[in-house]
Design brief:
The protein is of the alpha+beta class. The protein folds into 3 domains: about 100 residues, no CATH class; about 140 residues, no CATH class; about 80 residues, no CATH class. A hairpin with a 2-residue loop joins strand 1 and strand 2. It has 8 helices and 20 strands.
Amino acid sequence: METCSPTYVRGMLTEAQYKEHGGKKPEELSEEEKELRAPFFSTAEEEVEGRRKPVIPGSTLRGMVRALVEIIGYGRVRWVGREPAFTFRAVAASKDDPLRDPYRDVIGAFGRNVRAGYLERKGEDWYVRPALTPEVLHWPSKEAYLKVKERQIGSKDIPGFLRLNSPDYHPQLHKVSFNVEFGRGKSGPFVMVSQIGSSEAGYPHQGVLVCSGNMMESGQPGQKSPRKNHALVLASDTKADTIKINEKAVNDYKEGLTPFQKEELKDWGSKDGCLKKDNPVFYVTGRNSTNTEEVVYFGHCPNFRISARQPFPDANRAARPLDFVLDKLRDQLDPDLADAIFGWVEEKEWGPKDQRAGRAFFTDATFIEA
């Protein structure tokens, strides 16, 4: 049996090049800088098709072969992360999607279990102050927040507002003032936002417009966002009691943050996603062992991700990658086949004690012909 896969080892930068743009993220690079990073690794002066002749370093070959030996030899599983916690969402999932019902059990049909509010912190604990709801204001809606169609927002209504199809789009928060009007449709009476502007625009109601992701992370060039609406969280309900967020829910949320959430939720102003005092938040409550209401799931947008909780010996918590590695594969202290061939260095949490040099050596693989 033969298996083949593309192999790419990125070339090195000179010291001057690294100082100039080595710390930039991929999206921050100019086309010229991308070209400098793109070539295959090489130590040769000869060129092939206008580029220096490629070389696969011996250290790379050694690592690739060791990985295969670990698989074939049922070796110890190394360096498995405790983060991130596994999370999921299944918005508009098909009936045969196994995540559809678990997700719907939490957020409810059409998200009816989801409420909105604002975060507060008391010592080390997080709380939610519920927001006003249309129903509390005697408006004809049972929703926890209002939905604003983007086409109803004028180009100059909200300073700094980015539309869903803007090339610079990122999730946003905007403090706004607004007005509403009532109507009647096929499903009965409804409330809609008729005017909206900055918080200083002078409209009678205050709130925060929450503009979440445009679902274009994996979109094709020229594709339009499928989203049309933004969520408008009404002002804080000063008469409502705060609701404590379950500590496990906070830990699961922080451990389950995706790279997208960590990088893109800039307007929320926190390294921990939406967790910052006075930020708007969407949440679902439940009852604890003392029958006290508490927040058990939450996120920065209405269709937030929820943790994939499992009953582990230590707690019923979100599953993590390390949980799915058998104890005997991660706690084995005897050298395995890969250790015997390639050697090892003692680590704090993994593998055998002391250290041994390897018995296998690899030289560089040089290009012959295409």
